[in-house]
């Protein structure tokens, strides 16, 4: 049965392309945050360990929401590390930086995802896809707030 939700197939595919990048950024940031949760050390251990756990749980749920929106648009969502690696702008961390560098990398990551979200909203708005624009606006606000909270630790 053909999809008829009021958004042309080419527009759904363009939106899904941007959502796929958002998904890859979200998942990559999730993985980095989870790793930092496991490996943080120092005087800030307790507070950062708990904060990172809250953040990676939120990112995990967000990834599912973004992937399901891609499927709602009748496009398959990327779901492998190689696909995410090609799509994501989040830099991989293979070592274990100190807590300040962890926080700095997470600020940068949330800001990258905020940029990706803004671009996705533009494409969704142009196509009249209020559902995607609304969902991604919520994601944008969450990433901006998290970046602010993390950045505050470094002052």
From TrEMBL:
GO terms for molecular function: ferric iron binding; oxidoreductase activity, acting on metal ions. Belongs to the Dps family. PROSITE patterns: DPS_1 (PS00818). It comes from Dyella thiooxydans. Residues 17-154 form the Ferritin/DPS domain. Transmembrane segments: none annotated. It holds the Pfam family Ferritin. This is Ferritin. InterPro entries: DPS_DNA-bd (IPR002177), DPS_DNA-bd_CS (IPR023188), Ferritin-like (IPR012347), Ferritin-like_SF (IPR009078), Ferritin_DPS_dom (IPR008331).
């Amino acid at each position: 049965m053909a999809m008829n939700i009021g958004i042309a197939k080419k527009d759904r595919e363009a939106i899904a392309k941007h959502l796929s990048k958002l998904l890859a950024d979200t998942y990559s940031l999730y993985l980095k945050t989870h790793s930092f949760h496991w490996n943080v050390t120092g005087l800030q251990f307790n507070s950062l360990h708990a904060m990172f756990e809250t953040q990676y749980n939120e990112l995990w749920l967000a990834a599912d929401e973004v992937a399901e929106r891609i499927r709602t648009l009748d496009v398959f969502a990327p779901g492998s590390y190689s696909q995410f690696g090609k799509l994501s702008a989040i830099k991989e961390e293979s070592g274990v930086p100190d807590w300040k560098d962890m926080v700095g990398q997470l600020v940068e990551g949330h800001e990258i995802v905020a940029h990706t979200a803004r671009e996705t909203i533009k494409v969704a708005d142009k196509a009249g896809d209020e559902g995607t624009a609304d969902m991604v606006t919520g994601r944008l606000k969450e990433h901006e707030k998290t970046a602010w909270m993390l950045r505050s630790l470094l002052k």
